[in-house]
Automatic annotation (TrEMBL):
It comes from the Archaea. It comes from Vulcanisaeta moutnovskia (strain 768-28). This is PaREP1 domain containing protein. It holds the Pfam family PaREP1.
Length: 184
């Protein structure tokens, strides 16, 4: 994957291509996470895995925006969802947004988001034998978590294929990611 793909501006969240663009971003970030792991850069890999999951959540939020708009109770929450949550996916609200997505049919999303957030902590704090600042005692635990999250991302993206505008570029990114996962 070229760096140019990641550098393209995202379509506006109101445009249908937004979901495809965010899925492509998720797949590319996940591939970078595996590349960093292969070089022994575990903290960088954790950060990329987190970014991949965050992009994936943005895609889901946009894909299910109509259902989510019915779940929220106030106009202020609807406006926040459209203007802030979908384009930015604030880290501090990822668990709440994942719960909302779970409520509209994405079972099991909360533990995966918790894993992504733990990897985010690891990126900044590194290994922590006392597990006070990071949920991972060593690099090996974090590496396993990166691979686990990337595998889950692949599984969930594949489930979305029939529902999104699927391009050759997305197919290529998914295939490259799966090949990299199977190569170990």
């Amino acid at each position: 994957m070229s760096a140019e793909t990641l550098e393209k501006p995202l379509p506006k969240p109101t445009i249908e291509d937004y979901v495809s663009a965010r899925l492509l971003e998720a797949l590319i970030e996940a591939r970078l996470a595996l590349d960093f792991l292969s070089r022994g850069l575990v903290r960088n890999a954790a950060g990329k895995a987190f970014q991949a999951w965050r992009a994936f959540l943005a895609a889901l939020l946009r894909l299910e925006l109509d259902k989510l708009m019915q779940v929220v109770k106030t106009d202020e929450e609807r406006r926040w969802l459209m203007e802030r949550a979908v384009p930015r996916v604030p880290t501090s609200r990822m668990m709440g947004l994942s719960k909302m997505l779970s409520d509209v049919g994405y079972a099991g999303l909360l533990p995966d988001t918790a894993l992504a957030l733990s990897l985010h902590d690891y990126q900044y704090n590194g290994p922590d034998p006392d597990m006070a600042l990071s949920k991972f005692r060593d690099r090996e635990e974090a590496s396993i978590a990166v691979i686990e999250l990337v595998n889950e991302l692949v599984r969930r993206v594949e489930e979305l294929k029939p529902r999104v505008k699927w391009s050759d570029e997305l197919e290529k990114a998914l295939r490259e990611l799966k090949d990299r996962l199977s190569a170990g």
